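Summary of Year 1 activities. Much of the first year was spent building the evaluation harness for sequence design. The harness presents a backbone, in tokenized form, and records the residue chosen at every position. We chose the following record to illustrate the format because it has been used consistently in internal testing since the harness was completed.
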């Protein structure tokens, strides 16, 4: 009996040790850089060799896979990949569904996975070489300023689709300064996603470079920038689908969905969105906080870094 307890104790100790060791490897580091456009000395949060929980949607008929993050065309991507995966089911239900073509649940999780290895195992018999040779992997990224503002307006200001007392805004109410300060502090201590609050905040507000297992698969992704020129963005996306063999009739329908679908959590074009964005862009303190959080997104995905010196 003593040997049994000793074995259990030693096993638990080993598990805890390995878990702590693994978690310790996830801890972020603070890097320092001088921005060329302003001379600003910036200490920003960085992470390497780790990705937060990811979300993938696949269309095996056309060998297309997409990873998506919050506030970067995710609901629309889930809708269109459901259509490409099971068009009969989609066409039967989308008109009566909440969010119409951007409904996230029409295909449930039948074509969705949390890891790239799951996608490879399911559709390429666990042969990664075959998968990456034959499949296209799309990752839509958004300017960090627009992405943050969209998430903040939806979740903290208007609370669209959320209860008024939800836990996702650090009790900051409508204060961007409070929210960005606490988000930065949280990222400095980040050791993974362990509960629904962690996952929600990561999905909507953590840097895009930290998601979609980007550190592993950056060379395998087709990056599409989701920017203010929606017409150009839509044409680029449709071009990638066309290149993968999606028929013109389906592309015409998808294009119609792009222009006519209005998700309930959409924030673009709202007066309050423009008001908060303008306030952020004129506030050096807030912009510096935002850069400390999202600098790696600006740098990695070639978004223009705001010149804070001009505002000082």
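For this record, the design step produced the sequence shown next.
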């Amino acid at each position: 009996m003593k040997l049994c307890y000793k074995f259990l104790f030693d096993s638990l100790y080993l598990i805890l040790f390995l878990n702590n060791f693994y978690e310790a490897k996830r801890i972020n580091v603070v890097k320092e850089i001088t921005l060329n456009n302003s001379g600003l000395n910036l200490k920003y949060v960085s992470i390497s060799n780790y990705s937060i929980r990811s979300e993938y949607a696949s269309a095996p008929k056309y060998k297309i896979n997409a990873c998506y993050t919050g506030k970067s065309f995710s609901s629309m991507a889930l809708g269109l990949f459901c259509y490409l995966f099971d068009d009969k089911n989609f066409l039967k239900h989308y008109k009566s569904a909440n969010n119409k073509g951007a409904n996230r649940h029409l295909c449930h999780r039948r074509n969705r996975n949390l890891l790239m290895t799951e996608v490879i195992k399911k559709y390429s018999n666990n042969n990664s070489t075959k998968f990456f040779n034959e499949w296209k992997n799309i990752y839509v990224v958004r300017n960090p300023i627009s992405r943050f503002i969209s998430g903040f307006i939806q979740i903290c200001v208007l609370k669209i689709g959320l209860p008024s007392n939800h836990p996702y805004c650090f009790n900051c109410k409508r204060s961007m300064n409070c929210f960005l300060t606490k988000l930065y502090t949280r990222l400095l201590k980040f050791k993974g996603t362990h509960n629904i609050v962690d996952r929600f905040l990561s999905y909507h507000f953590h840097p895009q470079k930290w998601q979609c297992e980007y550190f592993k698969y950056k060379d395998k992704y087709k990056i599409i920038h989701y920017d203010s020129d929606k017409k150009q963005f839509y044409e680029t996306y449709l071009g990638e689908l066309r290149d993968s063999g999606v028929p013109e009739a389906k592309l015409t329908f998808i294009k119609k969905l792009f222009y006519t679908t209005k998700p309930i959590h959409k924030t673009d074009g709202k007066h309050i969105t423009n008001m908060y964005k303008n306030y952020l862009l004129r506030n050096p303190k807030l912009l510096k906080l935002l850069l400390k959080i999202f600098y790696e997104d600006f740098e990695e995905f070639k978004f223009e870094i705001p010149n804070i010196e001009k505002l000082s």
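Residues 1-27 have pLDDT under 50 and may be disordered. Quantitative recovery figures across the full test set are reported in Table 2.
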